[in-house]
Specification:
The complex is a heterodimer of chains A (about 450) and B (about 475). In chain A, α4 crosses α8 and α6 packs antiparallel against α8. Chain A is α/β, with parallel strands linked by helices and about 450 residues long. Chain A has a five-stranded parallel sheet, sandwiched between helices. The radius of gyration of chain A is 23 Å and the shape is globular. With about 475 residues, chain B is of the alpha/beta class. Chain B folds into two domains: about 325 residues, Alpha-Beta Barrel (TIM Barrel); about 100 residues, Alpha-Beta Plaits. Chain B has 16 helices and 19 strands. The longest helix of chain B is centred in the middle third of the chain and has 15 residues. Chain B is elongated, with a radius of gyration of 28 Å. At the A-B interface, α2, α3 and α18 of A face α12 and α13 of B.
Chain lengths: ~450, ~475
């Protein structure tokens, strides 16, 4: 899992230059000094992992960068990727009390990154507790943020943790699914490397697809943590969807991040208006598409993407087609794609086509990005684990499922939230497993 | 229109305003002083001239605080390293070109009568409007028996002042060192010696900091350091206190030129309110240049206009009668903190300050919305933080989750607006000092239901009054 296997494409790096460049040491110091050091700080409360924000900022201002990073890692083992990908506007920075004084909130994300970059650059590994003979053995399925957080917390407290992953690289969406201008694949892998060096075992290319494979895990491990995320993108459910040139948003993002997709030409239509749709649309622009349309069957005020993501897409030159529904995909005689669409309007929560509003968009690529469906087949194999609306049912504070040996967290439980939510749930599950194991041992 | 001119200070020194440059690097040469006068400075105390010296490099170091540069500053520079001849010929030139600005010669020579008589004659010959005797310099010169070595021994200070007064025809100011237990002992000696005025304070012995990589204190001179004179904004409170001590003591009080951390017209007004007739500035000029005097003059003028003062003499010393010994303070004056809920931003720094630094009377026990069950009053800070870190928070991903919840009547959730227990509040001010919002926490007077009484009155009264019955 070294980052050496990644292509170092200079052009790609140039095209996906960082959206938020790091702070210089002095800028970080000045910013850190602006922090009021609130008591029971709202930024900390709003963070799903409850990072001690004033605590780590105070350490930056005193020049104790190592202590600052340790303080962050204590709460959030993926503090580095979270500092880059967290929607801080609706989390810590959104909660900053300076807003109420009409002052700019503290740039918590950038300060966190400052501390984490310094720590990861040092190559230091977070200290872990001695492994006790009686410590539980836990397997985490999926190598995304939830499993990584669970496994890291377990080894920190002296337990055994093994992560099994069907793909060849760890990190889940951090590695394969986050826009490169926010989090570089190499940085995601670097962060996971520290977790491996803390003593977490990794098995790659290990998909769990049958009851037999699950039984094998059960006989080897005491507890199972399910952190498989969500499954493939939903189909559009229209004719012609399997045409060449139709590629779903996560495949597109993963494709350019690991170097399979180097450029995109012509016109691209992204279907959907969530944060992933926006990442895909921006990526298409940066990879060379001369026109990128984002097609959404509802209006601007209904889109689920964060406001700052929407603004960013506009800056990137993405054009938005509101209240337009795709009907079919055809091939033109020149081999291009034809996307038949119709204008719709909402009547009593139903979308009805407007007469004489049919319109065909000639394009080169169509990117569906309308939510993700659960990895249903695996979950079916888990005995005694409830699945509702495609999500695993697990206790909110412990992650324990109906089957006491099975725990779950991250997107497969919450239906798709942020990295920081996955980390928080993985950590909560790890602590619950340790507590239950200790009680069982006592 | 207010008149900020200084007339007849110390028995005869005039200047267009009370802002003088202190004897220091900004007054090193005639060229510099002329530029300063052009910028608007009313007077300048020439960098001390006298015995030949050699300076070292480096010479300065500073204390930065919370990202701000030079909250405090120190130096190990000695007196002028230019010859007496050069300095005095430049002084004559300055005086010729700027006859209306005050030029004071700061002097320091070996402790013998003739040396002092000579230098006094030469400085006055160059046209100095007054003489300032440097009895304050705390580094280097003091090791050679000058500067603060004189200023720490009342007998020396008086003797040299007497020698100077035998010869001087212009007003004599004695500059005092703060590196002494009671500054009044030297002030009294100077007064006994016949000084016309005092300047205070000189710099304070200091080590500003130590380089944690080399273990060498700053400023670093080839791996070693020496204690330097501390000045800048950090020393102002010490200087104000010493100005008050001098001006409230009849045996010390003389016309006073206030020095110590003065950087703005506000600082200047405060020194004048404690009795100073002029003020001297150095560090702020070393930081920002001569141009700061523009705001000092305008600001003082505006403030005097607002307060209705026509001359500096009208408000000089007004605050002296408001400083007293502790035993004369009213024990029955009672104030309590009041938090303005509309202004509170919910940082809760007042809560932690009151719990950990004061009297545990600011509590976080308000609630937002209805509560089912017990509300714990007086939760300790640690318990409160533990509670909020145990709560599960999630990123609001849907539009609905992100909708700003209405907070009711206040800009901050009520549960984050602290409550003051007025029965326990001792009125210490701490919360209002830590609050980052102007006028959010006000200290309000409450009726203690008792007539004013001081400790002095109470303890004197105890000798005759019957013991109170409880």
């Amino acid at each position: 899992m070294s980052s050496a296997i990644l292509p170092d494409d200079e052009k790609l790096r140039e095209r996906f230059g960082e959206l938020k460049p790091p702070l210089t040491a002095q800028a970080a110091q000045i910013e850190a000094n602006r922090c009021l050091n609130c008591f029971d700080a709202p930024c900390t409360a709003s963070c799903p992992t409850h990072i001690d924000v004033p605590g780590f900022i105070k350490r930056i201002s005193s020049g104790n960068l190592r202590g600052s990073a340790l303080r962050i890692l204590d709460a959030n083992i993926l503090g580095s990727s979270c500092s880059r990908v967290c929607p801080v506007e609706v989390l810590c920075e959104g909660a900053c009390v300076l807003h109420r004084q009409n002052r700019k909130p503290i740039q918590i994300g950038l300060l966190q990154r400052h501390a984490m970059d310094s720590f990861h650059k040092s190559g230091e590994v977070l200290p872990v507790a001695m492994r006790a003979a009686s410590a539980p053995r836990v397997v985490c399925i999926g190598a995304g943020p939830a499993s990584l957080a669970c496994a890291a917390e377990l080894v920190r407290q002296g337990a055994h943790a093994t992560v099994v992953e069907r793909r060849s690289l760890p990190g889940g969406l951090n590695t394969y699914g986050v826009a490169e201008y926010k989090l570089r694949t190499a940085d995601s892998l670097h962060e996971v490397e520290m977790i491996r060096r803390m003593g977490v075992d990794f098995r790659f290319g290990t998909g769990i697809n049958s009851a037999a494979e699950l039984e094998a895990l059960e006989s080897e491990f005491d507890y199972v943590f399910v952190g498989v995320g969500l499954g493939a993108m939903q189909q559009l459910g229209i004719p012609g969807e399997d045409s060449d040139g139709v590629i779903n948003a996560l495949e597109l993002i993963a494709g350019y991040k690991v170097g399979h997709i180097r450029r995109i030409d012509g016109t691209v239509v992204v279907v959907g208006a969530g944060n992933t749709a926006i990442d895909a649309a921006n990526a298409a622009r940066r990879l060379g598409a001369h026109a990128v349309y984002l097609l959404y069957r509802r209006g601007e005020s209904d889109m689920s993407a964060f406001d700052f993501e929407y603004e960013h897409a506009k800056q990137e030159g993405v054009q938005f087609l509101w209240r337009r529904q795709p009907l079919a995909i055809r091939k033109s005689e020149h081999g291009r794609l034809l996307l038949d669409t119709v204008q719709v309007h909402q009547v009593d929560n139903k979308l009805l086509p407007l007469p004489d509003s049919h319109f065909t968009i000639e394009c080169d690529q169509i990117v569906p990005a309308i939510g993700q469906s659960p990895l249903a087949h695996l979950i079916h194999d888990l005995r005694g684990v409830d699945v509702r609306d495609g999500r695993i049912v697990a206790d909110h504070s412990t992650g324990q499922t109906g089957n006491p040996r099975y725990f779950a967290g991250g997107d497969c439980v919450n239906g798709g939230r942020e990295v920081v939510d996955a980390v928080a749930s993985g950590k909560r599950a790890a602590n619950a497993i340790l507590k239950i194991a200790e009680e069982a041992h006592a | 229109m207010p008149d900020i001119r200084v007339r007849g200070f110390a028995g005869g020194i005039n200047s267009p305003n009370p802002f003088w440059l202190a004897s220091a690097p900004p007054t090193n040469t005639g060229e510099m002083i002329m530029r300063a006068f052009e910028a608007g400075w009313g007077g300048a105390v020439w960098k001390t001239i006298g015995e030949p010296v050699t300076n070292v490099s480096s010479r300065y170091s500073a204390t930065d605080w919370n990202g701000l540069r030079m909250m405090g500053f120190n130096n190990i520079e000695l007196i002028s390293d230019r010859s007496v001849e050069v300095n005095l010929s430049e002084m004559a030139e300055v005086k010729k070109r700027y006859p209306h600005n005050a030029v004071i010669a700061s002097l320091m020579v070996a402790s013998n009568r003739k040396a002092w008589h000579d230098i006094v004659a030469r400085a006055e010959g160059a046209g100095a409007d007054g003489l300032e005797l440097n009895f304050g310099c705390p580094h280097g010169m003091s090791e050679r028996g000058m500067g603060s070595a004189v200023g720490q021994v009342p007998e020396y200070a008086q003797m040299i002042t007497e020698w100077v007064k035998e010869k001087a025809r212009t007003p004599v100011l004695v500059k005092l060192t703060p590196n002494i237990t009671d500054i009044r002992t030297i002030a009294r000696a100077a007064k006994r010696g016949g000084a016309d005025a005092l300047s205070a304070i000189n710099t304070i012995n200091s080590i500003t900091g130590i380089d944690l990589d080399t273990f060498t204190p700053r400023p670093n001179v080839d791996g070693k350091s020496s204690h330097g004179g501390y000045c800048g904004p950090a020393v102002k409170p010490i200087a104000l206190n010493m100005a008050q001590e001098i001006m409230s003591d009849p045996e010390s009080a003389l016309p006073l030129s206030g020095i110590g951390g003065i950087a703005t017209w506000r600082d200047a007004a405060e020194f004048i309110l404690l009795g100073c007739g002029t003020v001297q500035v150095c560090t702020a000029v070393m930081h920002y240049g001569y141009r700061i005097v523009e705001d000092m003059a305008e600001g003082l003028d505006n403030w005097m206009r607002e307060k209705g003062f026509k001359t500096i003499e009208e408000f000089r010393g007004l605050s002296l009668k408001r400083v007293t010994e502790w035993k004369h303070l009213n024990l029955n004056y009672k104030i309590v903190a009041h938090i303005d809920e509309q202004k509170c931003i919910g940082c809760d720094l007042c809560h932690i300050a009151c719990w950990d630094g004061a009297h545990q009377c600011i509590h976080l026990d308000r609630v937002s919305g209805p509560v089912d069950g017990h509300v714990e009053l007086h939760t300790t800070p640690a318990a409160r933080e533990m509670q909020s870190r145990a709560a599960i928070a999630e990123t609001p991903v849907t539009r609905k989750e992100r909708e700003v919840t209405t907070l009711g009547d206040y800009p901050t959730p009520l549960e984050r607006i602290p409550r003051v227990d007025e029965t326990e509040c001792v009125g210490c001010n701490l919360c209002s000092l830590v609050c980052p919002v102007d006028d959010c926490i006000r200290m309000e007077r409450v009726d203690a239901g008792k007539p004013p009484e001081t400790w002095d009155e109470r303890t004197r009264g105890a000798e005759c009054a019957p013991r109170p019955q409880f």
